[in-house]
Amino acid sequence: MPEHVSPHRLRRLAAPLTLAAALAVVALAPAAAQTPPVPVQESQAAAEAARLVEALQLPALMEIMQREGVAYGEDLRADLFPGQGGAEWTRSVEGIYAPDRLMPLFTQVFDAELEGADTAAMRAFFEAGPGARAVELEIAARRALLDPGVEEAADQQLEEMLAGQSPRLLAIEEFAEANELVEMNVLGGLNANLAFYRGMIDGGGLPQETSEAQLLADVWSQEDTIRTETRDWLYSYLALAYAPMSDAELQAYADFSRGPAGRALNRALFAGFDAVFARVSYELGLGAARYLAGQDI
C-alpha cells in the first residue's frame, strides 16, 4: 500500500490535550410519559459529569478538532485525489468531524469507562487552581496552532529547548511519561490507520482481497514514523501550552495525573478518543476511496 495513504497525522487531533481534553455525559432526551424516571444516583452522576464538561471546555475542544480535521482533509485530497472533490469534499469532512455527531460517541465510551471512578476529585482539580489554568492554556495553545506560523514557531522553540537542555523540557517529558501520552497516542494512531485502510477497502480504494494480515503488517511498519511525529508534535504543543505555568503548577498537574483519579481519567479519555478517531478514520478512508474510484460522496 502506498505510504501517502497513511493517515497517521489523524492522532494529532485526538489526545494531546492530555488529561484536560474532555469529560462528558450522554445527553438525556426529554422523557416521554411512559419512560421510567431516572434513578437519583444516575441523575447525580449526570450532574457531576455536566460540571466536568464545563470545567474541561469540551465543546471548545470539539470545535477546534473540526477545524483541524478540515485542514487535514485538504492535505488528504492533495495526496490522494488532487483537483477533485471541491466544496463537496470539504463539506463531507466538516460533517465527519461535526461536534454534534462525535460528542455522543465520545461520551458513551467515556462515561462507561468512568463508572465507579472518583469524578468528584477530577472536577475539584479542574474547576480551580492549576487544573483550571492548565485547561485554559491547553485550549488556547490548541487554537493557536491552527495558524501554521504559530506551529512553526513552536517547533523552533522545542529545538532550542532541546539544544539548551531546558529543565522545563525535562518536566514536560516527565509529565508526558506519567500520562503515557506518547505510547497511548502511538497505539491510537495505529488503530486509526487500520480503520482508514478498512474504509479504503470498503470504498473500493484498495483491493477487496487485501487481507487483514496485510493491513496489520503495513500499519505496524509505520510505528516508528508515528512515534517520532507524535513525540515531536506533543512536546512542541505541551511546551507552548505550559510556558506560562510555574514549575509548582506543572508539578501539581503531574501529581494529580499519577493519582488514582488522574489515571482513571486518562484511561477514559483515551478510550473515548480512540472510538471517535476509529470512526473518523474509517469515514475519511471510505470517502477518499469513493473519489479515487471516480464517485461522489
TrEMBL record:
Signal peptide (from-to): 1-31
Record keywords, A-Z: Signal
Designated name of the protein: DUF2059 domain-containing protein
